[in-house]
Amino acid sequence: MKKVILSVAIVAALGLVSCKNEAKNEVESTQTEITGEVALTEMSFGVRGNCGMCKSTIEKAANAVEGVAQANWDVNKKKIDVAFDGSKTDAMAIHKAIAASGYDTEKVAGSEDAYKNLPGCCQYDHTMEMNQSGEHKAEAHDEHHM
Ligand SMILES: [Cu+2]
Fold first, then answer.
1. From 106's CA, which of 49, 72, 129, 141 has a CA 20 to 30 Å away?
2. Which Pfam families would you find in this protein's record (predicted)?
């Protein structure tokens, strides 16, 4: 008799676990639907910078703009990909926020004061080409081997 009770308890416990999993899945899919309803504007533009620290500063500045959902700066291409809610912000606000952190964008020159406060390795060349193909590094690598 005890064994029966025990197995009933196990079955009940298993049922509880699977119910929890289902509930979790429902929440996740609802969240996906909600984000799917917001039409995000995606765009990319040139931003100068040198390294991984530049990347975090640039992305942090872009992400701090209300309405920005995603920001990803490419160190090789000197270019940022952003996704934002066009009803909350616009491209120019993102350009300005990045410039305020010390970095030049295609449209707005970086703040000189912020630039001076960047770590030495991050004080990029103001004549640096933006929107590069990203293949320069690979080519240089090949030459090195020859
Ligand atoms: Cu840097």
1. 141
2. HMA
